[in-house]
Amino acid sequence: MRHPILVAALAGGTFVLAGCMGNSNDADVARAMKSVNAVDESNLSDIMLTVGSPAEAVRYFKRSSDENPDRIDLRRGLAKSLVRAGRPADAVQVWTAVTKMEGATLDDQVGLADAQIRANEWDAAQATLNAIPPTHETFERYKLEAMVADSKKQWKKADSFYEIAAGLTTKPGPVYNNWGYSKLTRGDAKGAEKLFLESLTFDKARFTTKNNLVLARASQRKYDLPVIDMSQTERAQLLYTAALSAIKQGDVAIGKGLLQDAVETHPQHFEEAARALAALDANVSKS
Predict the structure, then answer these.
(1) In which region does residue 35 sit, left (phi positive, over 0), alpha (psi from -120 to 50) or beta (all else)?
(2) Would 127 be classed as within a structural domain?
């Protein structure tokens, strides 16, 4: 059923446009229609970059940028959609072209560095970031700087960049998580635990951070679960993580108990934990 108000509004819009056309020359009309099309195109581009499927977005931006080779916004859209589609090497090529186009910005160089990191081109990413003036202080830039410093094991630099990045965003949860993981790989489990807890104050639902927190605590032989928000399923999975960590560190009896808790806690059948428990029992019976 049509809504009469909506129909009236549309009809009114048509009448106004017709009135304008009656008082304008063809060039004015062409410019007006081009503006309308540009707005529609911009909205479509935003949709493609956010809710559209990655593959569909790549096709859309590839076709559109081929038809409009001078449109830097469409090239940017293609580069971003290639990253979303898991094709970082292709994104590197497009971002490289974008940085050489008229209207290119320093953020385009940051986009290139991001694609280079995803493509495992760490040295190239460092060179790209080094070419960006230090006055360009953005969250994305410092997040990438921290990751590159991590890859080079330049821990002081990494810590400094992570701290700056966290201060440049209203949602620093993922930054603190990455920083914590960096600390964990260095062997600083206590420092990692603190950062994972900090991350969860900004994003209580992120399971990856919860799991990392349990790993950091288990590295210190603290196998009890932290006091954080978790569902029953998450609790079972975190008990499983703690159990495997305990067994790996030689605390087999504790690990077995945690596995039993994981199996009993899970609201459904917990295949992985049950299998690990059975394997552990089989090993004990053979020895």
Answers:
(1) alpha
(2) yes
* Residues 259 and 237 both lie in one domain: yes
- Number of C-beta neighbours around residue 2 at 10 A: 7
**CA trace torsion 65, 69, 73, 75 (10° rounding):** 60
Domain boundary pick from 131, 166, 181: 131
Return d(Cα 95, Cα 279) in angstroms, integer: 50
Distance CA 179, CA 162 (A): 6
**Quick one: 84 and 149 in the same domain?**
no
Q: Domains in the chain: how many in total? A: 3
Please tell me the pTM assigned to this model: 0.79
**Average pLDDT, whole number, for the chain?**
87
Helix, strand, or coil (residue 227): coil
- C-alpha span between 242 and 25 (Å, rounded): 74
C-alpha count within 13 angstroms, C-beta hemisphere, residue 108: 21
Token representation of residue 11: 């009809």
Angle at 144 between CA 211 and CA 106, to 5 degrees: 150
Please write the tens of the pLDDT for every residue from 62-88.
999 999 999 999 999 999 999 999 999
Structural domain that includes position 120: 50-131
- The DSSP letter of residue 266 is S
pLDDT at position 280 is 86
pLDDT digits (tens, 9 = 90+) for 118-141: 999 999 999 999 999 999 999 999
Token pair of 23, please?
């008082």
Tokens of 36: 């309308």
Q: Note whether residue 33 is domain-resident.
A: no
Supply the pLDDT for residue 47: 78
57 found inside a domain? yes
Residues, the chain, total? 287
Per-residue model confidence as pLDDT tens digits over 110-119 = 999 999 999 9
